[in-house]
Give the backbone structure.
Amino acid sequence: MYHQFMNQSLFSPLKISGRELKNRVIAEIPSSFLANEAGDLTQDMIDYYERIAATNVSMVITEPFAVDKNRLFAKQPGISNTGGIFSLSRISERIRAHKAIPILQLFHPGINAKPETGLNYVYGPARFKHSRLKAEVRQYDFKQIAAISGLHIDAAISAWNSGYSGIEVNGADGGLIQQFLSPITNLRADDYGYKGQRGEKLALEIVKAIRKTLPDFLIIFKLSTRDLLPGGRMLKEAINLAMALENAGVDMIHVTAGFTIGKVDYAFPTGRTVANAPFAPDCAFLKKHLKIPLILSGKIALPGLAEEIIRTESADAVSLGRTLNRDLDWLNIAAMNSEHVKVRECKRCPTCSAASTGCPDMKGYAFWKLDLDKHLIRRKQ
């Protein structure tokens, strides 16, 4: 059982760059699969975001929005074809209505992109072969890299004009920025290569350009502390990058780990057999080197665990993805004085389909259609 007085750190406010988060719990939306085949937003997707915002989280970081036509999968939402500012703003408005801060996550899949129709190649930091990649990987040239930076700047401007408080630059989850940061995939021999500047040049260029263009915008950077693959990036390099990002103007760092190559469920770092909060030690160590707040992600299933993470200053906030999908009452339960109502832990499916088809552990129970004020009354036991 978890009483309100036990979780007082979890419900304390957090100030960040002139804004205040009402508590330390952030929603990190997994891919919802609710966009249409072209990547356009749908009403179901907008309704889903409102249900998440209504859980009393302090911030909602959207699922990864593709910054151009490259997609991980057909139903990944894209900034360039979402119907413009009006469509994007429908999500930010729903989030703000519940006093949560809306953040748009920017993502480029790089070598993990789904090849365009009729083509058998994709682009990445360098030519690269892997058994889980079916398409040929071609190397980006300098002009194409400059265009990628421009895409992130344009996307940030779109987020600003659509009512978001900031953006999250995704430098993890197997995306293009992480591909530049990893010695596994970045085999270049120039300034963008891993051997030259540890692959940090693109990430820092994007952050600096967004900060210059939008001085008052929140910039969160999602950082993988370790690739968790043989020959991959390690914690020491992550610390150096985090310090450089802080100097470049990042307001918060979102801590995760792991590196995806190929299918999205490859090397899933927080599966069923993994202990809760596996990235907490790295986050606590990283925190000693930085002044900006850190968000910890990764299998934070129980309110008591989240409270301990905040109380011991291992992180400044925690992000919930599948955990919140599994139980929208998570924050309500964390604040209740009850011995009888407990959080139902997520079973950590490799791909979360709770938003699109209902949580399989709940037998197709479409939770986002619940009345917003009746979660506890209508809970299934």
In short: The radius of gyration is 20 Å.
